[in-house]
Amino acid sequence: MAETYDAIIIGGGVMGASIISNLATIGMTKTVLLEKSTIGAGSTGRSSGAIRMHYSTAVNASLAHESLKVFTNFSDIVGGDAGFVKTGYMVFAPSEAEKGFRENISMQQTVGISTREIDQKQAAELAPAFDIAEDELIAWEEESGHADPSATALAYINHARAQGATIHLETPVIDFEVLSSGTHRIITENDSFESEIVIIATGPWTAQLLQKINISLPLLPTRHQVFLIRRNLESIPTHPGGGDMTNLIYFRPEGHDLTLVGNGNHEETANPDSYNQKYSLSYAADVWNRLSKRMPSIGDAELFTGYSGLYTSTPDLHPIIDAVDGISGLYICSGFSGHGFKLAPAVGTVMTELITQGAASTVDIKPLKMNRFADGKLNTTKYSFKVIA
């Protein structure tokens, strides 16, 4: 006999966790989350954890802005500790990106984001360790920083549980049926679950799950690498986070003396069930060299560790947050292309609005509809460095 719920969320990363928590907040607590492994075991646990709001589109910038409001008040809104650390965030752009860069800052300010263009002198005061070219463009987000993705996901799960939601771990979905009654049946190894509402938030496994109901979407799992470098504190005591389009890297401080760094443009297609989770020393050397162009004193640091994780990428580097046309009660939340963690709090909000009200009101998510690829209405970015998008 199938267990019946008001909603089923498939996927226990930070997106699924945020969604079930937000549903619980409005009193929708007869819900269940099905996770094939443990909470945050997929992309979430291997995220860089950076939180910033510099984007080329109002939809991503707005989701990031609304999410920052939650991260900075997480214990009051959700409960628990997301590990948010305010470091400030600098965005560097080469002179040839001037037009798009300034258009983006203007758009972000219109959204309500606290960001501004600063000059080289101001940047040097904020980050003495940075080497900055005379013709570079610099944006400064004072309120941004980073947080702990796994802790964030667990806090959302704990909040949902406390409100009465059900969480099943080590429960992989093996089949998905759309019944003639309009109900969805989700079959796992030991049980089956039914609901009129199903939300798919399975990250790099989304495409293969959708194949079970003959839906094809351009959701590509890609492998990215991240490194942690131990700084010499006499040379670089601390520094803000950064998105560096000149050197094609992103970075942030971690803990007392580490710097996390990656390059979101160097990716490869991966099988989410069997990809290499280690890091490449040659790639680490390349990224470290790029980082040393921004922070020359990082050259006397040492490589601490590294790891690989998965993005779920779409052709326009924007997620799909939408109800599926023609299948009542089915929703997709995937394809964040490396941007997901910093957007997760707001995604839980807009998904809840979409499910319960038929449309999102906190942020206009119409640009994230699933049919935009077939309709040729892709979102565009003003930058070639895709991780900034």
Structure, explained:
Helix content is 27%, strand content 25%. The protein is of the alpha/beta class and 389 residues long. The longest helix has 18 residues, at 340-357. It is globular. The mean pLDDT is 96.
CATH superfamily of the largest domain: FAD/NAD(P)-binding domain
Mean pLDDT level:
96
Helix content: 25-40%
Instruction: List the uncertain runs.
Output: none
Protein structure class: alpha/beta
Instruction: Report the major sheet.
Output: 9 strands, mixed
Q: Which class of the largest domain in CATH terms?
A: Alpha Beta
Taken as a percent bin, the fraction of beta residues is: 25-35%
Oligomer: single chain
Label the overall shape.
globular
How many distinct domains? Answer: 2
CATH domain topology of the largest domain: FAD/NAD(P)-binding domain
The CATH architecture assignment of the largest domain turns out to be: 3-Layer(bba) Sandwich
Distance between the termini: 47 Å
Tell me the number of helical segments per DSSP (H or I, 4 or more residues long): 10
What integer value in Å does the Rg equal? 21 Å
Number of strands: 22
Write the layout of secondary structure elements.
Layout: E1 3-4, E2 7-10, H1 14-25, E3 31-34, E4 50-51, H2 58-71, H3 74-77, E5 85-86, E6 89-93, H4 98-111, E7 116-118, H5 120-126, E8 137-141, E9 145-146, H6 149-162, E10 166-168, E11 173-178, E12 184-188, E13 192-195, E14 198-200, H7 206-210, E15 220-230, E16 241-244, E17 249-254, E18 258-262, E19 268-269, H8 281-294, E20 302-313, E21 320-323, E22 330-334, H9 340-357, H10 372-375
Parallel strand pairs: 1-13, 2-3, 2-14, 3-10, 6-16, 14-22
Antiparallel strand pairs: 4-9, 5-9, 6-8, 7-8, 11-12, 12-13, 15-18, 15-19, 15-20, 16-17, 17-18, 21-22
Helix pairs in contact: 1-6, 1-9, 2-9
